[in-house]
Amino acid sequence: MDAHARAAVRRARADKPLRLGLIGFGAIAQSLVQCLDASLASGDIDIVTVLVRSPRQAIGQSSTLSKTVFTTQIDHFLQHDPGLVVECAGHSAVRDTCPEILSRGFDLVVISIGALADRGVEERLRAAAEGSSGRLTLPSGAVGGLDLLASARLAGLDSVRYVSRKPPAAWKGTRAEHLIGLEKHTRAIEIFNGNARDAALQFPQNANVAAAIALSGIGFEKTEVTLNADPQARGNEHSILAEGIFGRAELHVSGNPLPQNPKTSWLAALSLARAVLNSRARVII
């Protein structure tokens, strides 16, 4: 295919709405829909199908997706030919559905990056992407600086340390609630100290950032992680310290949580929206 033919194909695709498929329709997916409101209203993006456990409940939560097909069956979901699939449903969805979606050649964005702390899941996803035309995108989620880590890695990273501070409410419903008794403490208390793999596996709802940092930098085993419950935390706070041949970098993010889910930062939904918009953009920063 020559340059003119490739340009014609790109123009044809750009003239059509992006057919978007969502896996899950909880707090992150609903926030993503809000973030994409302008593109949905203009017709640039069309959410054609949503894969959920309970279509009736999901439909009741959405008044803006009246033409969207909600289904529990992956075959039915993929029959609607989404140009891009976005996972918003947690580690089990990544494990159970995402390898098949990639292997069938569909492009996929995964926000539950902590699922890749399971070596088997990571291997299956990579094999599915490499063995098909499907492309796997891992967005930055609730933190920044991943481009810096990935760039610095090319020259050599010596160490990467990640520290998380979240209010006690963000840890409710996790194993931290049983480990330390969240209501008993008025000062910051350490919940976990170890490597990124153990953090992501032990706290799947709270340590997706740790996995994203590990994958961008020096890997799960070498990335040091500390997780804290802190009544004084100003939202969900994330700090990264990296050192290597490039020099030294420190990054701190204090993100507001999603109103519907204090375990998740608003930035997670915004990073998904950016990944969706970038999938069609001609200029990407």
Could you characterize the architecture of this molecule?
It is a single chain. With 285 residues, the chain is of the alpha/beta class. The chain has 2 domains: 3-138, 3-Layer(aba) Sandwich (Rossmann fold), CATH 3.40.50.720; 146-262, Dihydrodipicolinate Reductase, domain 2. It is 37% helix and 26% strand. It has 13 helices and 13 strands. The chain has helices spanning 3-14, 27-35, 37-42, 55-61, 74-79, 91-96, 98-103, 119-130, 146-153, 176-180, 196-202, 208-216, 266-278, and strands spanning 18-23, 45-51, 69-71, 84-87, 108-110, 136-137, 157-166, 189-195, 224-229, 236-244, 247-255, 257-258, 261-265. Strands 3-2-1-4-5-6 form a 6-stranded parallel sheet. Strand 12 (257-258) and strand 13 form a beta hairpin. Helix 2 crosses helix 13. It is globular and about 50 Å long.
Strand and helix layout:
Elements: H1 3-14, E1 18-23, H2 27-35, H3 37-42, E2 45-51, H4 55-61, E3 69-71, H5 74-79, E4 84-87, H6 91-96, H7 98-103, E5 108-110, H8 119-130, E6 136-137, H9 146-153, E7 157-166, H10 176-180, E8 189-195, H11 196-202, H12 208-216, E9 224-229, E10 236-244, E11 247-255, E12 257-258, E13 261-265, H13 266-278
Parallel strand pairs: 1-2, 1-4, 2-3, 4-5, 5-6, 7-9
Antiparallel strand pairs: 7-10, 8-9, 10-11, 12-13
Please give a quick description of this structure.
With 285 residues, this protein is of the alpha/beta class.
Structure keywords:
Rossmann fold, alpha/beta, 13 helices, 26% strand, disordered N terminus, six-stranded parallel sheet, 285 residues, Dihydrodipicolinate Reductase, domain 2, five-stranded mixed sheet, 2 domains
